[in-house]
Design a protein that fits this description.
Residues 51-70 have a biased composition (Basic and acidic residues). By secondary structure, this protein is an alpha+beta fold. The chain is built from 1 helix and 5 strands. It has one helix spanning 62-77, and strands spanning 19-22, 27-35, 38-43, 50-52, 57-59. Strands 4-3-2-1-5 form a 5-stranded antiparallel sheet.
Length: 82
Amino acid sequence: MPAPLPVPEPLPVPEPRALVLDTRLDQVGVFCGEWNGTWFLRPLTGGKEWEASPDDVRPADPGQRLHAETARANARSRGEVL
């Protein structure tokens, strides 16, 4: 009988306001919170919060963070973000 496959450890819940990547949508978002196993993310440039499965979310890498923060700075310079 083959050995059972290891079960991956669940990701720890990020700190509020952490930048994360929703791999299902390929979108960087700000972690807002968790409720009943669902994580809530918001676009860095503002906008409607969306729900994500913890299995689809990982920390944003430095390049993704830079891209998202630059987009936010550009939106802010246009008056789109406070």
